[in-house]
Design a protein that fits this description.
The protein has 250 residues and is an alpha+beta fold. 74% of the residues lie in helices and 8% in strands. The chain is built from eight helices and four strands, in the order ααβαβαββαααα. The protein has a four-stranded mixed sheet. β3 and β4 form a beta hairpin.
Length: 250
Amino acid sequence: MTGRGKTNELFASEAELKNVLLHIQQDCAEKLEEIEVKSDEEFEAEKYKEILNQVHFIELHYAQKEKLVKKKNMVDIITMKNEARMNHVTWRHSIIRDIIEEVKIRLHDETGITKYRTLFSMLLLEGLLKMLESNVKIWCRESDVPLAYDISKQVGKKFTKMTGIKVSLTIEKERSIDDKDTGGGIILVSGDNKISLNNTMFSRVERLSYLLQPAIYIKIFKKKRKKFLPKKSFSDWELKEQSLSAVTLL
């Protein structure tokens, strides 16, 4: 009986040991499963975080590229507008220059002898009044030398009467001016060659056109906008012909 009792106790101990081992294995399996689940959750969380970081990086990268593209487009638009504005200004300036050149031609061709004599006298007197010199040399066109001799004494007396300065006028025939570049008129030089005054016809037109340029622009391009900037296109010559009627300012 004693041996059987020991055997029964041994079997009972083995059964208990098996139960303990079974519980341990079950606990280990549960713990392992918990660890795996937690690891998967942490992995998914890290993966999601990394994806968000990459998405944010990509969005930031393309946002910067979009800004650069917009900036470049804006610069291109501004450049195109400036070029268009400059082309328009150049076009308007060329129209004004054509008108001024046409005025020079008409002034040269249409000024009669009597009118030119009066203009020549006025240009000489005006030049003397500006210089206020007692010794002045006169340069003029070769064809105007007789006219200069004819009116110089009269103008000199008038100048002396107006200023009280006695003036000596010397006509330098060897220093004649070019008709093509000046259109007539005179160039005055002081006796010591320190002062010179260009009072030719074309120089006066240039000075007047500079002073009256704002008024000329208003006369041509604003008040007559519909006439000078029509829907249909005109040639430069047609525009110039239309514009000449507006240059009575000169």
